[in-house]
Amino acid sequence: MEYAQLNLRHLAAVAKIAELGSINAATASVNLTQPAITQALARLEEQLGLPLFERHHDGMVPTPAARLLIVRIEAALAHISSPHVTISRLRAFLALADAGSYAGASIQTGLSLPSLHRAISDLSLALRRSLVRRRGRTVALTAAGFDLARSLRLARVELKAGLAEIEALKGKETRTITIGAMPLSRARILPATVTGFMRRHPEVKLAIVEGSRAELVEPLRNGTIDLMVGALRLPLDEDDLMQKPLFDDLPAVIGRRGHPLAGRDVSKEDLAGYAWAMPGRGAPLRTSWERFFTCTDGNLPRVPIESGSVMMIRQILIDSDFLTMLSPDQLIVELEAGWLEVILSLPAELGRTIGVTTRKSWMPSQVHRDFLEELDLQSKPAPEC
Fold first, then answer.
1. What CATH architecture is 251-350?
2. What is the pLDDT of residues 21-36, one digit of tens each?
3. What DSSP letter does each residue of 107-171 carry, written as one string?
4. Could you tell me the pTM of the whole model?
5. Nearest-angstrom CA–CA distance, 275 and 352
6. Per residue in 332-364, pLDDT tens?
7. Matching CATH topology for 1-173 and 175-248+354-379?
């Protein structure tokens, strides 16, 4: 079943039945008649393929399926926070926000242009806010539209999660965990976590989205990804996110095998005489690098190449006398192969905390919790023999 087949008023009625214990008690709360709620509930149960309530003479008791779904319904309605948002309006608005044009939204949804215009116009009038503005053939979200898009995306995530959990209850696994992978997480901890998790849950699909924190934080905030693994930002800038540390990582100065500084007792002044390839300003590693060199006459070494790509930096180092500051874990293959070597180990105060970042409002399912458990397990140091 697709989320677009749902009816938000009917879902609100299901939540109220569970809360109040009967259809009669729910009628006033959702402004629907008893026959309308009864019919809506029967249709939803048919669509889901599972009963949502056990009917007793003294009321209605939620089934396990209902208990799973109702948590998601309540979360989705909290994100929506308006009775004027319908599934059709939600779908139309998010398609327009994603596509950036009515034509693109039409292709994405299969809805006609007049239907899309009417849905967006009705939503804007009902909410008494301007949501989009035209820019030639494209449209841009207003500030109110941007905030609404984020809320509706999070509501959509909850509805999809609820339906996926119902399918899992029926024995059909459709759940996907979408992970934002920052550079350091890709070296060791995330691959080990993925393989460990897949041994336990071979039916669950994992989608790994690679990028820098700047590229991943907005998809995390709007629900496109579930969690983000990598260097934590201290202090945390976004008040709707939360972080959990996993382990500390200590970077090192790395250059090619046979670099002029290799095997020497090098000073900061020696290091400052070479060009560097580093992530852009604002990245935690770049900040640590700047802190390291603050004592050298106030002048930082040259950074002709700014890149967050370990693959790019690796090749630059192999082919030149450039230096970088990276975790040895990120270049373990190249170091073991003898292509690169550690020029200087760094003091502990330059270490970074690696961890997982999630939304404060996120409600992980059991498979999400199992993934986080595996992540914790893989972040612990191996026992000594």
1. 3-Layer(aba) Sandwich (3.40)
2. 999 999 988 889 999 9
3. HHH---HHHHHHHHHHHHHHHTS--EEEETTEEEE-HHHHHHHHHHHHHHHHHHHHHHHHHHHTT
4. 0.85
5. 23
6. 889 999 999 999 999 988 888 899 999 999 999
7. no
